[in-house]
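Materials and Methods. Structural model of Cupin. The 110-residue sequence of Cupin from Pandoraea terrae was retrieved and submitted for structure prediction as follows.
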Amino acid sequence: MQLQTGNLFSFEAKRGGEERIDMLITGQRLNVERIVSLGHASPEGFWYDDSRAEWVVLLSGAAVLEFEEDSTLHDMRPGDYVLIEPHCRHRVAWTHAKEPTVWLAIYHER
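The predicted structure was written out as tokens:
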């Protein structure tokens, strides 16, 4: 048996460019990603729209999510999580610019 190990907080954060997305687990019905944001936000007018459910937890940093159906901004701090139903259009409105925002996202079939 070969163990696959790592640390969710071991990464090199970069300003500008793309968010860092690391696939931790991939399967037919389940994916687990670590996402590292540093001042990133979704482009204006862009909405995520996934056919799978997404459970996401904020591990460090700070972020604001926006959902198309509900114009209220959802402030997220470490430990906060949200279950996003399939095809629930959402976007990242803001992430902390000076402190890495680390997310753990689990995508699964409903």
